[in-house]
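Comment on both lines for my students:
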Amino acid sequence: MEGPSHLVQVVVVGAGIVGAAVAYEAARAGAEVVLVDKSLPASGVTADSFAWIGGPRGGDAPDPSTVLRRRVLQDYRRLEDEVPGLRVRWRGALMWGEEQLDDGRLAPGERLVDAREVGLLEPRLKARPIRALHLESHGAIDPVAVTQALARAAQEHGARLMANSAVTALDLRDRQVTGVRTSTGSLPADTVVVTAGVDAPMLCGPLGFDLPVAPSPALLMRFTAPPGLVRTLVATPHLEVREAADGHLLVAAGYSGEIDHDDLRRAGEMMLHRLTATFDAPDIELVSVRLGTRPMPADELPIIGPVPGVGGVYIAVMHSGVTLAPTAGRLIASEIVHGVEAGQLAGLRPARFRSRAEWRPQRRADA
C-alpha cells in the first residue's frame, strides 16, 4: 500500500476496537498516528461486548449500513492474515424461535436444519427445536485480545499509544480542529478521529454539533461450564450464549434497570437457571456479571464521517463497533490518509443530523 504524498498527522481518540482498527489502518497507510485513551486499550465498553461477528442475514431489510456489513467477514479474515495474534473463532451460529423460518430468504452461508442436525451441532441441548437457522460463516472474537493485537500492530507501523491520557477538548481555530488537549499535554493533528463512544457528544458539543448518541446499557455474564458444552453461538429470544476462548460461557442479556451489584448478581442467577434448563450440565456456575454501555445513535445507524461545518475532525461512533471495526477502520483510513471518499459510507455521514427539523429516523437491520 502506498503512503500519502505528505505525512498526515492523525490523532485517534479512544482505544476501543474501532479506534484501534482506525489507528492500525492509518499507520499502515503511512500516516503519523497517535492513539489516545483515558485508560488502557479495550478497557471500556469493548471489553463488555458479546463479540458476535457476522454479516447481514437473508431476512434483514436493507439499510444504509448493509453494504458495510457485507464486507465484515472478509475484512476479519484479512486481518487474521495481517495482524499477529488476531484470531476469530469461526464456529457458526444457531438460531431458532425468533421468527418464521423461510427458505426463500436465506443468504449465502445460511441453511435451515432439522432437529437431527441441531443435535449434531449442539448435542448437549435438553430439547431440540424442530427447525433452526444455521449461520455457517459467523464467528466470535475475544474483543480485548483483538483490540490489543490491533494496537500492537499499529505501533509496529509507527503509531504511538498514549494510554491513561484523557482528551479534555479539541483545539478549534477558525472552524478548523488543529489537535487535542489531553490530561498530559496537547497534540497537533491534521485530522482528529473521535472513536470515543458515549463520550463523543461531549467532545463534539463545543464544535457546535449536537451528536445524537445516547448510552445503551447491556449485561455480559460469564459462567464456568464443562468444555464444549456450547459448540456454536446459540441465539434464541431468551438466550444468547457462546463459549469463550478460556472455556467459560459468555451470555449477553438485556438491561432491566439493574442499579447495584446485588441486582447484577440476581440477574446472573436467573440466567444460570435458564442455562441449566437449556443444556444438560448441572455444574454451571456464575462467575461475573458486567454492565457495559455501548453508544446508540438516534437512528441506530453508525455515524461515520467529517463533522459538518468543521474541518479536521472525523466521527466514528456505532452500536455494533466490534462487528464493523475492521471494515470501518479500512474505509476511514482511506478517506483521511488518501482522501478517497468511500461510497459505502454515503448514508452514514454525521451531516444527516445537521438539521433536527429535517431528520427522520431510519431503522437499522441488526445490531
Summary: Residues 355-367 have pLDDT under 50 and may be disordered. The first strand starts at residue 9 and ends at 13.
